[in-house]
Amino acid sequence: MTTMNAVLAAGGPELHPQAAEGVQSVAWLLIALPLAGAAILLLSGRRTDKWGHLLGTAMSLGAFVVGVLAFFQMLGQHADGRSRLVHLFPFISAGSLKVDMNLLVDPLSISFVLLITGVGSLIHIYSIGYMSHDPDRRRFFAYLNLFVAAMLLLVLADNYVGLYIGWEGVGLASYLLIGFWQHKPSAATAAKKAFIVNRVGDFGLSVAIMVMFATFGSLSYQDVFGQASQASQGTITAIGLLLLLGACGKSAQLPLQSWLLDAMEGPTPVSALIHAATMVTAGVYLIVRSHAIYELSPDARLLVTIVGVATLLAGAIIGCAKDDIKKALAGSTMSQIGYMVLAAGLGRPGYVFAIAHLIAHGFFKAGMFLGAGSVMHAMNDDVNMRKFGGLRKVMPITFATFGLGYLAIIGFPGLSGWWTKDGIIDAAFEKGGTSGQILGWLALIGAGITAYYMSRLMFMTFFGEPRWDEDVHPHESPKVMTVPLILLAIGSVAGGAFLILGDRFAKFLAPVVGEPEASHRLITPYTAIVFALMVVGVGLAYVQYLRRPVPRTAPAGNPAVTFARKDLYGDALNESLLMRPGQWLTRLTVFFDNRGVDGVVNGLAAFIGGTSGRVRRVQTGFVRSYALSMFVGAALVVGALFLVRI
Amino acid sequence: MTGHYLVLSAILFTIGGIGVLIRRNAIVVFMCVELMLNATNLAFVSFARMHGSLDGQIIAFFVMVVAAAEVVVGLAIIMTIFRSRKSSSVDDANLLKY
Amino acid sequence: MLTALIAIPAVGALLVALLPKGRDALAKQVALGVTLVVAVLSIVMAVQFDPNGKRFQFTEKYWWIKQFGVHYAVGVDGVALVLILLSTILVPLVVLASWNDADRSGGVDAPPKRSVKTYFALLLALEAMMVGVFAATDVFLFYVFFEAMLIPVYFIIGSYGGPQRSYAAVKFLLYSLFGGLLMLAAVIGLYVVSANAGHGTFLFDELRAPEILHHISPTTAKWLFLGFFIAFAIKAPLVPFHTWLPDAAGQAPAGAAVLIVGVLDKVGTFGMLRFCLELFPGASKWFTPVVLTLSVIGIVYGAVLAIGQVDIKRLIAYTSVSHFGFITLGIFAMTSSGQSGATLYMVNHGFSTGALFLLAGFMISRRGSARIDAYGGVQKVAPLLAGTFLVAGLSGLSLPGLSSFVSEFMVLVGTFSRYKVPAVIATVGIILAAIYILWMYQRTMNGPTAEAVKGMKDLSKRELIVVAPIIAIIVALGFYPKPVLDAINPSVKQTLIQVHQQDPKPTVAEKGSHQ
């Protein structure tokens, strides 16, 4: 009963999941199918090269089917009974530490399940075509399946340990896929960097888990959130900040953003699935899932919003300066996730928009990345936009789908991005006070920059005169690649309206994150400003990149441009603050260990050796000197005996 | 009365000891060692007499046996060294060092 | 049962040693057969073990030296059981892995002629002693096995090791002997104390009984604790007693390195848990801050050193220094999840580091160099080798889903609930672990294929058979550690009762009880 009261006091919804029935009771299939796919493909070796990609796709589609069935079952349930628990097996138990492997099927997790398996399956299908010439295609699909399984575990776990396992699992998949072409040193380095930076975030998550266990004696969402109101303010804020650190690592938020741009070394479907649509949004999921913690700590919430706003601006600025189409999109991803994090930090009204934007972003960004992949496919894997231009005529389908995604992300009225992003900006102003005004205006400015850099990307790639290399002959991609593009484009167009109109998504999520106070206003005082800023952004890009010819080599820009091109000196900062001192420290430590610690030991050995070397000189080989020493010794013994006697 | 025997034994032992220390000829050193052994034998026998027990005499027999064995081995060693080095000085045979 | 587990490899060692010269193949087959029999027997024993039954099972007790109260007494609790299983499963794999290690004519550094059968006889002898040391429930017997273990290892490193083998072997021997002598003094001290208490004994069960415990003055207990602890700290090894390990593990043949780091070192941590804590509960608590500090230093220091290594085997050895920091941290956190986690860590570390050493050994035997910069792009030519190496490495950096994660997680959570700062500093280790493993992996396996590596063969069938079971165990224990934990937990509970410690209550619950 105390738990109940605590929940009510925290203002959160009830958290007493019932046992799952029907399809939901086999929710473990969601994870097991892709996991089995990964295992089969990895263990069977070259034997499955011929049909491995089909198996991988089938497993992902199978998970999607299970997800859809579970979703429809959920729709049939009463709103209060939509959180269902699937008991799997006891995982860890020692003393008071008990962790069970259970799955939690609730509106929040099922939203993610549909996104992951849906977009994931489309990307699997796309990859059949994209990777068709790669000798290691089977391995690629194995890793993709592994990723899907880990990501599903991340969102389905009913406790922080399960989440952590999935969390690191997607990190591993990301590592393997970024470094998929590991013979390229740059890819290997990028993969390692992604993993290590993520580990910094994981440090936060691990410590958060420790604090939770020490505070609540349990790690399941139910127990932690239920008792959250009883813990001290300091503890709650600490947990909130540590979770935020974890989220920053995974979602490439400041100050752990630097890995995402390098992660573009991976094959493009990977960038679409992992580094745009799903994995990088795990941080948003973490914050929304832990909303019971954040609702108790205004300080932690404030920091979340600050991180979100800072990243959305930083990402947008980086996006403006990149000539590499994938890196420009990566900057945009950072920025869009910044919006989501900002929304998640805003509290009750923001959660819905955070997740809605996340889903909409999943569609349009995945679509654009795949579109970029299609373009690269046509351009002999070149990523430099300065060598593109005029592609809309030769690649009509790619152009059309990309264009829809573009309109969605800049917030063209009626498309997905408009519904969700305006909601976030509105929620920021709604927060009230100075901080609300500042956050709101910064988010507004971010929207303007978004329109600018996306238009720049669009114009440089698809419009203007062709600036292709001589040996490049662009062509439209095969059906297996364009069909997923079309499906994702449909999502980018309609997703936002579907979710936001009539508060559909808000009501759906209400059992998890709580009912927003008022229903969402479609037209707000800021709608016009957002639209105006968008027009300004597009217009600026039009003047710079369509009216004027685009030079094939990047002109030397002013310091501000250089600043943006160098990723706001993030890498330089990391290098000078962490890497160099780290290397020095390592060398110093090795030296200290060899000369200091081991030196003492070896010195002692040398001392003993040297002493005995000197002492052995007594052994002269002269019989008579031995005899003398014997006599002296005997005399000493006798003398000692006398002394003792007396 | 037996005290005199002990004094004699001590004198003989000292002579033997000094001989071992200062003489170089292996044979002489060897004879000095024998002298020391016999000095102790004398002491043992005297003590046996003094205490009226046979223990000392038994030990004396042991010493004689050891001495005999020693003579056999020792002289053999000295002979071989002399054959190979043409010298019976103990100071010349100092290879077994350090 | 336990006596059989000790005797079979011992007899096998004699048998192999007495085989006529030139029958090398036979020697290997006999060694493999014997170790497999032992492995099967130990698994049978594990199945029969009842976690909820008496603490020590399969006990045997006979007088050995009656005048000094020395028994031949053996028995296993959950902790000893899983460690014995670890050894008996690893040894046959090591035998199979080092099939050709002893008879390779070798490069310039290899000694001219090495006896193949002696190598396998030594391995068998080592197995007998490893089982014995975990099974002994008489402190004197434990000491005898503890010291006797050094002999086969000394000869294995000294005769079959790398270019600096004799330096490494002597260093190993001297370090261990030094610790061993301190322990001998403490063992004798224990006997004296027990004799003063009215009943001179070396039996563990009698020594931990309250009659004798209360008879030891706190000061004496501290000295005796130190005697045991330093011996175990050298064995484990804990910073600053660790410098023998990189040399020994780096110079030993890969198979022997597996046993040194995987099993032999566990004797140290096992001894801390079994003997230091239970025989000297008061002194253990008194020394806890020191040990925790050393552990935390070890975690970070070992990891930083590992990052800076240029030799693969030394790198792995230093990662172990870091991991042993976690184990001692868990033991001295004195919480059930800390100690259970530490024990599980011993097992997991044995397998994951074992796999790393074996795979590094396979790789080194192909290329003939242990330097990291001698490799590059191995993944392209030997994908199986690279893949298994990656899995073992990831287990080394405690990736969730692989076995080490469970134990590291338990240790950290268990430590944090009592000692906040050490746990947080120790958590930094997970970042460093990612750096040292992935950087090594990148330098050896990724990038363009190095010229010297081009003709490298992938894992052979034999090597695959060696590695596959270990990888399977790593994955299985990563997802379902329950069977092992079920065996460990009751023993740990006993230990905690002995040191009068309970798990700290969650702060929320504590507050609730005040209200």
From TrEMBL, chain B:
**A Pfam family this chain is assigned to:** Oxidored_q2
Which family does the similarity line name?
A: Belongs to the complex I subunit 4L family.
**InterPro entries, alphabetized:** NADH_UbQ_OxRdtase_chain4L/K, NUOK/Mnh_C1-like
Please give the start and end residues of each transmembrane region: 6-22, 27-47, 59-82
Keyword Transferase carried by entry? no
Metal-binding as a keyword of this entry, yes or no, is no
Protein function: NDH-1 shuttles electrons from NADH, via FMN and iron-sulfur (Fe-S) centers, to quinones in the respiratory chain. The immediate electron acceptor for the enzyme in this species is believed to be a menaquinone. Couples the redox reaction to proton translocation (for every two electrons transferred, four hydrogen ions are translocated across the cytoplasmic membrane), and thus conserves the redox energy in a proton gradient.
- Which EC number(s) does the record attach to this protein? 7.1.1.-
Membrane topology, as annotated: Multi-pass membrane protein
What protein is this chain from?
NADH-quinone oxidoreductase subunit K
Question: PANTHER family attached here?
Answer: NADH DEHYDROGENASE SUBUNIT 4L-RELATED, NADH-UBIQUINONE OXIDOREDUCTASE SUBUNIT ND4L
Q: Spell out the subcellular localization from the entry.
A: Cell membrane; Membrane
What quaternary arrangement does the UniProt entry report? NDH-1 is composed of 14 different subunits. Subunits NuoA, H, J, K, L, M, N constitute the membrane sector of the complex.
- Residues in coiled coil: none
Q: What are the entry keywords?
A: Cell membrane, Membrane, NAD, Quinone, Translocase, Transmembrane, Transmembrane helix, Transport
Question: Which reaction is this enzyme known to catalyze?
Answer: a quinone + NADH + 5 H(+)(in) = a quinol + NAD(+) + 4 H(+)(out)
